[in-house]
Amino acid sequence: MQKLLKGFIIDMERTLSIKIDSSMHGKRVDYILKNYLNISSALIIRLKKDKNGIMLNGVHATVITKVSEGDIIVVNIKGEEAKNIIPVNIFLDVLWEDEDIIVVNKPGTMPVHPSRMHINDTLANAVLYHIGTKETIHIITRLDRETSGVVLIAKNPWAASILTEDIKNGKIKKEYIAIVNGALRPSRGTICAPIKRKEEDEMLRCVSEYGKEAITKYEIKKNTDKFCLVNLFPITGRTHQLRVHMSYIGHPIYGDSMYNAVQKDERTRLHCRKLTFFHPVTGKEISVVAEIPKDFNGLV
To answer: Which of 53, 79, 112, 227 could join 135 in a cystine, given CB atoms 3.0 to 4.6 angstroms apart?
Structure first.
């Protein structure tokens, strides 16, 4: 991986190689890429279009080529240009970083991606500048604009494809902390309530028997007459799940005007405190924690 040098933005590329042993002898190139290098079918299609994407013993190879013991496959994975996103020098709270991934602590008022109202002030703008590239980054664990906390980002398509599969298979675990209205009882529990999009609104979700399965576990940290500080553990990953579930049980999250909180405030008091995932290259389990924001202080 290449990085920013003296203010110049330069390209990044991920190169993988594997030497064929006796157990791989006679297998096709695409089988090796999928089963030994964890390269997705979608990424293989992209690599096929690049004359230097898949090399066998220094020569361009097709995916149907069969390999022999001692052969060396080299894969050159190039990023794509990030369309409509420019690098901007915005402070970035980096919690963990290496060649393939970066984990950051997103502020509670920062959007993840640019939009018509937010062009140059998003997490994507800040991460591109920090990494020193104009190429696409892949935000694996998105957060709403008003939600703060840990966000996992892949720097290249290979890492992104592995982590995306991990999300689908429930291998990436999140732990949130929130301030909710009212004294929550009992001290711990599970909310099982299916969620779907509200028919009359593109943004809003609601609990409905016709929705998709949604499960949230909770544990109370501190209760008062007016508010409760609670840990939330989403078992599923539906849009706005925690906000919908807490409102559904009569304890909307502080400041969440979208889902019936009575307070008008700058943001919803929901924070992704901890993220646990497996590194896409090493397979090592990694847990990253973001400190609770200052705007939680004094409310509970």
So the answer is: 79
Q: Residue 175 corresponds to which tokens in the numbers above?
A: 């732990």
Nearest C-alpha neighbor of 273 from the set 189, 188, 174: 174
Catalytic residue among 144, 166, 201, 225: 144
CA distances to 114, 130, 268 from 221, in Å: 35, 35, 18
Q: Verify whether residue 144 is a known catalytic residue.
A: yes
Under 8 Å CB-to-CB from 145, ≥6 apart: which residues?
Answer: 109, 110, 111, 112, 118, 267
**Strands 148-154 and 138-139, how do they pair?**
antiparallel
- Mean pLDDT calculated for residue range 125-141: 90
Give 169: exposed, middle or buried? Use CB within 10 Å, 0-12, 13-18, 19+.
exposed
pTM for the full predicted model: 0.86
What is d(CA 52, CA 73) in angstroms, rounded to the nearest whole number? 11
- Computed on alpha carbons and rounded to an integer, the radius of gyration of the chain in Å comes to 22
